[in-house]
Amino acid sequence: MEWISHSRILIVGLGLIGGSYARGLKRLGFHVSAIEKRQSAVDYALENHIIDDGYTTVEPEIVSSADAVIFALYPEVFRQWIAEYQQLFKPGAMITDVTGVKSCIVYDIQNMLRDDVEFIASHPMAGREVYGVENSDDAIFRGANFIVVPTEKNTAEGIRWIGSLGRILGFGRISVLSPEEHDEMIGYLSQLTHCIAVALMTCSDNEHLVDYTGDSFRDLTRIANINDLMWSELFMLNRESLLKYMDIFLDEFAALRDMIRDGRVDELREKMRLSTKRRAYFNK
User: Fold this and answer.
1) CA 165, 170, 171, 174 torsion-angle sign
2) Are the C-beta atoms of 137 and 23 separated by less than 8 Å?
3) pLDDT digits (tens, 9 = 90+) for 154-194
4) How far apart are CA 151 and CA 118, in angstroms?
5) How large is the greatest C-alpha to C-alpha distance in the chain, in angstroms?
6) What is the number of other CB atoms lying within 10 angstroms of the CB of residue 98?
7) What span, in angstroms and rounded, lies between the C-alpha atoms of 100 and 83?
8) Which of 43, 63, 132, 247 has the highest local Cβ count within 10 Å?
C-alpha cells in the first residue's frame, strides 16, 4: 500500500501525537478517522476539522475500512487492542505505532498478528510537554527525526511505506534501527533526560525559585512537566537500558563533584571542553 490521498487512515488514540498525525494527514488530503475513549477529545477534533469522523468505541466497519492504522496508545493497551480486535483489520492493511519502547512490544504484536496484515514499528522523535489533541500540531514533525524499527518479519514494501509516512509529514531525517538499538538509544536520549529533569525539580521545595530563575533552569526542566502514567510504564518496560545510563550518569556527576571539591580546575575545564565539543554535534 502506498500513501495516496484517497487512502483511509484510522488513528487509535487521539492524544498529542495521534492528534498531530491526524492534523498532518488530513491537511494532506487523507480521510482520517479516529477511535479515542474521551468523548471531549473526539468532539474537539471534529469541531476543529482535525478528523473526518471519530468514535469512543471500536466500530467494526470503521476498522475494516481502514487502509492503514496508526496506534498512539500505551504499550500494554496497544497489545491488548491487537489481541482483541485484530480480526477486524482489512486484509493487506498496514499498521504502525508511535510507542516509545519497542523490544517489549514489537515482537509480541508481530507474533500474534494475522499473516495478511503487516505491522511495521516507528517512532516520531517529536513531542511537547503538554498533552491531548487540544495541543496537537503537526508542525512539531517538521525537521524532526523519525525512526523506522523493522524486524525480519517486515517486508521491503512495509519499510518503504513507513519511511514515506515520515517524509510526507515533513520529518527531516529518517533512520532505521532494530528494536534493541532503538531501546538502547531511547534509554539515553529520552528516558535518562526525563529522569534528570524530574530529579532536578524534586531537589528543592522552595516555591519562590520561580521568581529568580533564568532560561537555563526553565530549558533544563521543561520536560519535568511529565505524564506519570505513561512515563512510568515506559521506564519499567525499558529499565535495563535506562538503568545502564543512569549508572553512567551518576559516575559522571560524581566525577564532576569530586573535581569541584578537590579544586582540580584543569580537569574540570577539560570536562567542560569535552561537553562543548559533543554538544556541537546537536547544534542546528
Assistant:
1) positive
2) yes
3) 999 999 999 999 999 999 999 999 999 999 999 999 999 99
4) 11
5) 70
6) 23
7) 20
8) 63
